[in-house]
Amino acid sequence: MKIISGSLPEGTAWRVLLCLDPDHPSSLIWQLGMTLAQANGGQMIPAVIMREDSEPIAGAQTLFPLLAEVLATDVNISPITIATSDRHKTLAQLIKKVGADLLLVSARMAEPESFSRLSCTVGVLHHENDDPISLQRILVPTSGSLNTAHRLRFLMPLTNKVSITTLYVAKNQYAGFNEQQKAQQRLHRLLNYVDAGDNVQAEVRLAESPSAAIADIESDFDLIVLGRQNGRLLHRPFLNSTVPELVDSIHRPVLVIHLAFTLPQEIFRRLDWSTKLIVPNLVPEKRTEAYVRIRRNARPTREFYILIILASMIAAFGLLLDSAAVIIGAMLVAPLMSPIVGTGMALVLGDVRFLRMALTTVLKGVLLAILVGLLAGLLRLDHPLTEQIVSRTQPGLLDLGVAVFSGLAAAYALSYSNAAGALPGVAVAAALVPPLVSAGIAFAVGQPREGLGALLLFGTNFVAISFATAMVFLALGYRPAVGQKERLVIQGRTFRIAFILLLAVGVLLFVTTYSLAQQLAFATRIQEVATMHVAEIDGAALDSLQVNGNINDEDATIFLEATVRSVNTIPHAEVITLQEQSGVDLQRTVALNLIVIRITALDPLVPPTHTPTPTSTNTATPGPTPTATSTSTATPTVVPSPTATATHLPTETTTATPTATAEPTETPTPTPTPITTTVDYLYGLNLRAEPDAESELLAFLPQGTIIVVLDGREVADGQTWQQVQFEEIVGWVLADFLR
């Protein structure tokens, strides 16, 4: 491709490219291109493409001034002359380089088979003569399809000066009431999709064929616009089979629009068209009201700063107090939803200034909320994180789903004033401020990992809500005009960035969700193993189990604190066995702390048998007070005091010697009751064979065990050992831990 004259335009603008024949210049093509460029506020690029070996280059250089004299205009025109050996390849390259949105070409130069290789919409003009026309009325035949909608969007900017009529043709043999009603519904849907309002007239006619209906009214119009779609996937052409017949039968200029879409564009536009069955476009007046309201609330005003600080303080107190009700109150006060919704609207409109303002407001609100959380965290440096805080530090895929549907509800409620009552519920569901305050508190108490998790939850909410609101606004008809190409470019770029961020957040949440699922599965396994091995102990059952330690690290020790209810005493050896078996089953190092709660099992049908125990007798223990008897027999434990002897000697000397004194062996001596005590140490005592901590372990005595005190008592290594008897076992325990 060699440029003979002119230059390629720079910048971003809506552009219509005219492919002109230097031998047969068409003033009608020039007029139509100029009208469309002027209506869309864009540029017109007249291009003459000739072969390198052709001679009429001088004639081509005089072509543009000649056409300019025919139709004077103030449209930005950038003429260009190109010499090439391959006309179709050069045309495709030129379209991409100048960013053409529409190519206009005369049917005399058109080769329909080449249009499928072009990346823009092509308009082929069929006309019998080349005289300029007074473009006042345009007829657009339609079957109510999506393709007609895209043809109308090119023509909508002309409605200020040109009258446009859509014609739906119903065949006579099917023209019942239902068919006419169906035609009206299709036209209504079509005109709502392109925001036609009262600018486009809709007409339904009964005829044997589309050509017969158009022939009856073609004299009332200056231009007939038909449509065809290039052979692509998801292809459903409009009147493709009848277009040649219509062109041959119509005596007015006919513009045949060939639509060209890539596969992603085709999928998107059909999804958008299908969505209108559920969510029709808002009327332009309603969209304007919603736009003004959302943009006003997205500004960083003084009221916004005050409310964000108050909401953050309420959320901080609620998180520290572990109160869900207080946190809900903070959600209702927080004003962060408005600028996030504004971000979604700015994405759809491609409005850079609006987007920058909304993002700035969100960023300032985020920083204020985190700062309040940091200050609140300083009040409880020595306290662990509450459950309400911890629950916001481990987001999952379910949180992404909540954020998406919250964004959908928020955008819909803000677009319809009669649905504004749903906004408080949306604010509670979105929960924007609590994660930020949780992050600040976590950073303040020195737990950055939890703080990053809370920030990930807010990031999830922000990205998902922004993207979801953008989808709702797009479905409701918010979009840049056809001529606002710069905004369309920004819209496409920001949508791609938002979609990539949403995918990134989704991947992170999938990782965290998978990690949480593994932790939960392993915790369940620990519970099952502990329950199984405790059940193997006779008369024991697991009451509760607390797991501490990093269960994700295979080299870390798992600390288990198990509370067991048992009718019997559990020996220390069985506790060791329980710890070892749990470690083998879990393939981890386990440290077990077993707390035993002694219970009594009672069967209502079998009364318990009374079994006397040493502690239940009321036998008086011999002590310094003598037992009163009818004799004066002395016992080994009764020692008369010196004062008593001196007092009774005079009276007892005249008394005969008691018989019992003379025969002590025949008088039965009372057997002293065994002295018992109770193990008073919380973790129980070890019963040793000798008064030495290194001697053989005979038994483990839990707290509350009743034992018999024997006479042996020794001191070894500064510790006092007491000889005791437990059941049939005699051994030594530390005396300091006996009651």
* Number of separate structural domains: 5
Helical content stands at 40-55%
- The DSSP helix count reads 23
Give a quick account of the main beta sheet: strands, pairing sense, barrel closure: 12 strands, mixed
Instruction: Please report which band the strand proportion falls in: under 5%, 5-15%, 15-25%, 25-35%, 35-45% or over 45%.
Output: 15-25%
Number of distinct beta strands: 21
Describe this structure in words.
By secondary structure, this protein is α/β, with parallel strands linked by helices. It has five domains: 2-126, HUPs (Rossmann fold, 3-Layer(aba) Sandwich); 137-275, HUPs (Rossmann fold), CATH 3.40.50; 287-479, no CATH class; 520-598, GMP Synthetase, Chain A, domain 3 (2-Layer Sandwich), CATH 3.30.300; 676-737, Roll (SH3 type barrels), CATH 2.30.30. Helix content is 44%, strand content 19%. Strands 1, 2, 3, 4, 5, 6, 7, 8, 9, 10, 11 and 12 form a twelve-stranded mixed sheet that branches. Helix 16 crosses helix 19 and helix 19 (448-475) packs across helix 20 (485-535). The longest helix is centred in the C-terminal third of the chain and has 51 residues, at 485-535. It starts with a strand and ends in a 5-residue tail after the last strand. Mean pLDDT is 80; it is low at 57-62, 231-240 and 615-667.
